[in-house]
Amino acid sequence: MYFNIQRFSTHDGDGIRSLLFLKGCSLACPWCQNPESRSAKHSLLFDQRSCLNDCHRCSDTCPSIEATPEGIKIHRDTLDDSQIIALRNVCPTQALTVCGEEAQQKMLFDTLMKDKPFYDQSSGGVTFSGGEPLMQSDLVTSLAKQLQAEGVNTAVETCMHVPWKNIEQAAPYIDCWLTDLKHTNERKFLDWAQGSLKRIKSNFHKLAPIAKRIIIRVPVVPDFNDSPEELKDIIDFAADIESCTELHLLPYHTLGINKYRLLDMPYLCSDKPLNNPDLLEYAQQYAKQYPRINVIVRG
């Protein structure tokens, strides 16, 4: 189950890359910029601004959609996956859109291989993203193995919040690990992201001796980890991960807020981007005591 293939990307790994976005995530970070990726099944997005209000094609198709004088009303508590699939391409204005599509591995491989000349010229490749791509570890492992056999560089963006067997299975076929480390405090991480930091730390220590390259990425989020002490602890942890050569600080932004409205989900984080250059400069200066790790601020 995937929801996008982004071609000609120059982020999320070296060179020109294609990004395969897979659905499903094991965390619930309230600042997530891809909330449509959380569910492993199809997701339904609705933009009232584009709705004709009187065509009723969606309500005629789906029993969980009601046509009212004020516009359509989606009863998401009764909306199931089969109903969402039936709504694909029903709306003439695309006010209703379905996120998620099932595909055979061969189709994905063939699509990703179309840009191999660009990978070769730029030392680029393919990056698996999401959601949490390693929730579909069989697919990632098999595709990465195929890609490497064709000389394509592979990378994976992962929150590391999956069973170790999922990571171990893919590890031989991943050239670069773009790993999230959001906090070092178990309680705060659980409260905000609803996950186990113990599992993530354990996976980091198991991966370190076998990974070819690890880049740790830190979303710097207001009121969550935007203090000097919290960033110091994260940098100290990264310094113990032997395969880690870079740490990227990702200042919080609000570009994904509109998606929450389309999904009828509350947005629980700040409505203003992080604006604290002194904090980011402090973190970069602090990290200089660890010469192996290059700390970069990514806008």
Explain what the structure shows:
The protein contains 11 helices and 12 strands. The chain has 2 domains: 224 residues, Aldolase class I (TIM Barrel), CATH 3.20.20.70; 57 residues, Alpha-Beta Plaits (2-Layer Sandwich). The strands form 3 sheets. Strands 1-2-7-8-9-10-11-12 form an 8-stranded mixed sheet. It has a two-stranded antiparallel sheet with strand order 3-6. Strands 4-5 form a two-stranded antiparallel ribbon. The longest helix has 13 residues. It is of the alpha/beta class and 299 residues long.
Detail the topology: elements first, then pairings.
Blueprint lengths: L1 E8 L7 E6 L20 E4 L10 H5 L3 E4 L2 E4 L6 H6 L9 E4 L5 H9 L2 H7 L2 E5 L7 H13 L3 E6 L5 H7 L5 E5 L5 H8 L3 H11 L6 E7 L7 H12 L4 E8 L5 H6 L14 H10 L7 E4 L2
Parallel strand pairs: 2-7, 7-8, 8-9, 9-10, 10-11, 11-12
Antiparallel strand pairs: 1-2, 3-6, 4-5
